[in-house]
Amino acid sequence: MNDTGTDSAGLSVGWIGTGRMGAAMAARLARADVPLTAWNRTKAKAEPLAADGCVIADTVAELRGLDVVFTMVSTETDLEQVLLGEGGLLGDADQVPGVVVDCSTVSTESSTAIRSACAERGVAFLAAPVSGNGKVVESGGLSLVVSGPEETYDVVAPLLAHIGKSVTYVGEGDVARLVKICHNLLLGVVTQSLAEITVLAEKGGVSRAAFLEFLNNSVMGSMFTRYKSPAFVHLDYTATFTPILLRKDFDLGLAAARELDVPMPVAAATAQLVQASVSSGRVDEDFAILLDLQAANSALELKPEDVAVDDGLGPADEAS
What we know:
By secondary structure, the chain is an alpha/beta fold. It folds into two domains: 13-173, Rossmann fold (3-Layer(aba) Sandwich), CATH 3.40.50.720; 179-297, N-(1-d-carboxylethyl)-l-norvaline Dehydrogenase, domain 2 (Orthogonal Bundle), CATH 1.10.1040. Helix content is 46%, strand content 11%. The chain has helices at 20-31, 43-46, 76-84, 108-120, 134-138, 150-163, 175-203, 208-216, 223-234, 243-259, 265-279, 290-297, and strands spanning 13-16, 36-39, 55-56, 68-71, 99-102, 124-127, 130-131, 143-147, 166-171. Helix 7 (175-203) packs across helix 11, helix 7 packs across helix 12 (290-297) and helix 8 runs antiparallel to helix 9.
């Protein structure tokens, strides 16, 4: 984690993209008394931020003259549209922001193209993808990985510190994108493995709650396995990250592996299981449905367990 004493006071800041993650991240900035202007394609999703002191913009163009603008969108196409499309942030050569910080998960190639477009307009660009979800953001537990010009990072680091607990600078260019993609490959592999061993334990007569409690308190437990335990115990698949988004990241990760000649047999096998979760049609639920698919393939009928479970982020979650 990088620590900096640089003062961010006086910087005017904009935020593009107030979905589940973006809204929670923007709210942390606003609650830290950062002057913030937010825009979202569907304005109603941005309007709750007004209660935290945000100005809600009607158009992206209203953010062009700000010092720093963050973007947090779902796809590469969305990122290109909000920055370079008609009415986009970089659409007026006479008025551009000083820095663009993109927190989306996109490919290295897309990030490089956006960086080049920014450079042509005299705009500094940082790639700053994140690890976590809306609840993690709200608890202050988000992690960010950043790449780009180090002098630009030094200016923006205090803002990033308001958003999450950990900010790691990994170098120039777009290497932060590869770091995030590697992170999400592990996310999928760990979740599939967790589903397999949980089903094995339950089919052998052990409750999911008891097994996961043991696992989480052992040397094999982690912040992630603890966080995912309520979903596994209660079978609550309210989306934090969908199978479609995870499939996108596996596509990006395996493409990077081919380009760099790195064999990834475990990730490749997991990618097929992630595809199966998409093919099941349950694309609006959380990717934790990997547990359901594993149970079905094991002839095991899962039922919610009415047990309070500690997710590591606050009071134990009650069964819904």
